[in-house]
């Protein structure tokens, strides 16, 4: 006797599939046309992303720089604990050949990559391996008239100082904001005193174009030995981007927080938390922690480092935890799952402070080629199926598969 055929309702099938990793869903695209089209619907993409958020399925990328070949690349780290895992793979993005792109993000699993010295930017979805090169800016940068010198100055340099990627829920649009520093000089003088002007440019994925927006009175001051990228990788929370800034007024040097709302495209200024001590003695890095804006504070110079993490909710700052006396650590890289803190020491070794056991572990990630300590950065993101109308990476850009000497326990 033939058994009756049992079929699951399509809604239940889609709910089950929405809990699978992107790699599996990519393979299932060939099962049937219905599945393939369903995976691209806004509802399925949203359900899939929110499931990863709810279950904290965090993914980690370590941006690195090969000091011998001058080639930037990204190491994708394992995200499973309790078992020794190798670095999954090392990826080189060809658009940024022989340059070190700064990484800004993540927003809904998307990362913004930008070369600060050139008008080269891209959006990257590391889950789907989709890569979109952004068009160059068409914004005019005319000569500047200097009242002091009573002449027009020539544009000498353009520097893209800082950036962020975010989502505008009102228009269902992904946007990138970047700060542009323009340097003008008197071309008729040998030793001309430079004059700096600032612009702010906003990119829309929907229109695939840049536009200029009014520049605020303050500009980001995310600096660490001349590196102007956010040191902990992410500064976007619920439609708003954040940066450190400061006043430059005489006898009124204060730290502040600059924010930008992707929806109304307006800037705001927030006070830095009062718990921060002397700005000369402590670093303050903004970051995203468990979906909220946080600040990690650590001394500028000390043999044994300590770290305080504060998180804000509706304008109220609350101290989450304190890590005391970690010897040999240079700076934090960022947080992984469950509050685990990644650090880098004076030997360029990547360490993990386990928040649950209060233990410090050496991850044994091979860093012998990373001769530029401050080019190493950690970037966390949740898997996403968001399409960006870009091109697909090809396997030849996976430049070096992991070996047994490159391993970690995270």
From TrEMBL:
<dbReference type="Pfam" id="PF07734">
    <property type="entry name" value="FBA_1"/>
</dbReference>
<feature type="domain" description="F-box">
    <location>
        <begin position="8"/>
        <end position="48"/>
    </location>
</feature>
<protein>
    <submittedName>
        <fullName>F-box protein CPR30-like</fullName>
    </submittedName>
</protein>
<dbReference type="InterPro" id="IPR006527">
    <property type="entry name" value="F-box-assoc_dom_typ1"/>
</dbReference>
<dbReference type="InterPro" id="IPR050796">
    <property type="entry name" value="SCF_F-box_component"/>
</dbReference>
<dbReference type="InterPro" id="IPR036047">
    <property type="entry name" value="F-box-like_dom_sf"/>
</dbReference>
<dbReference type="Pfam" id="PF00646">
    <property type="entry name" value="F-box"/>
</dbReference>
<dbReference type="InterPro" id="IPR001810">
    <property type="entry name" value="F-box_dom"/>
</dbReference>
<dbReference type="InterPro" id="IPR017451">
    <property type="entry name" value="F-box-assoc_interact_dom"/>
</dbReference>
């Amino acid at each position: 006797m033939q058994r009756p055929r049992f079929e699951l309702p399509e809604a239940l099938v889609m709910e089950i599939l929405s809990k699978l990793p992107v790699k599996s869903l990519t393979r299932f695209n060939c099962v049937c046309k219905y599945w393939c089209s369903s995976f691209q619907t806004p509802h399925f993409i949203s359900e899939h992303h929110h499931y990863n958020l709810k279950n904290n399925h965090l993914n980690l990328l370590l941006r690195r720089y090969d000091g011998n070949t001058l080639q930037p690349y990204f190491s994708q780290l394992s995200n499973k604990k309790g078992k020794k895992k190798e670095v999954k793979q090392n990826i080189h993005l060809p658009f940024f050949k022989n340059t070190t792109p700064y990484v800004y993000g993540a927003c809904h699993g998307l990362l913004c990559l930008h070369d600060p010295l050139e008008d080269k930017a891209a959006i990257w979805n590391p889950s789907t391996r989709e890569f979109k090169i952004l068009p160059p800016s068409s914004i005019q940068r005319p000569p500047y008239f200097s009242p002091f010198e009573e002449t027009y100055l020539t544009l000498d340099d353009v520097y893209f100082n800082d950036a962020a990627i975010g989502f505008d829920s009102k228009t269902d649009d992904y946007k990138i904001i970047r700060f542009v520093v323009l340097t003008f000089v008197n071309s008729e003088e040998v030793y001309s005193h430079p004059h700096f002007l600032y612009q702010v440019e906003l990119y829309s994925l929907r229109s695939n174009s840049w536009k200029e927006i009014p520049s605020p009175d303050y500009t980001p001051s995310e600096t660490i030995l001349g590196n102007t990228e956010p040191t902990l990788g992410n500064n976007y929370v619920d439609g708003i981007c954040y940066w450190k800034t400061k006043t430059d007024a005489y006898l009124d040097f204060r730290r502040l927080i600059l924010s930008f709302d992707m929806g109304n495209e307006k800037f705001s200024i927030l006070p830095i938390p009062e718990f921060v001590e002397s700005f000369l003695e402590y670093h303050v890095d903004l970051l995203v922690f468990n979906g909220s804006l946080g600040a990690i504070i650590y001394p500028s110079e000390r043999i044994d480092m300590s770290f305080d993490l504060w998180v804000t909710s509706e304008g109220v700052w609350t101290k989450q935890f304190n890590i005391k006396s970690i010897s040999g650590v240079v700076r934090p890289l960022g947080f992984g799952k469950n509050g685990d803190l990644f650090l880098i020491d004076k030997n360029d070794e990547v360490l993990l402070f386990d928040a649950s056991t209060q233990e410090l572990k050496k991850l044994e990630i091979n860093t012998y080629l990373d001769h530029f300590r401050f080019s190493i950065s950690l970037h966390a993101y949740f898997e996403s199926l968001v399409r960006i109308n870009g091109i697909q990476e090809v396997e030849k850009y996976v430049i070096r598969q992991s070996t047994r000497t490159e391993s970690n326990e995270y």
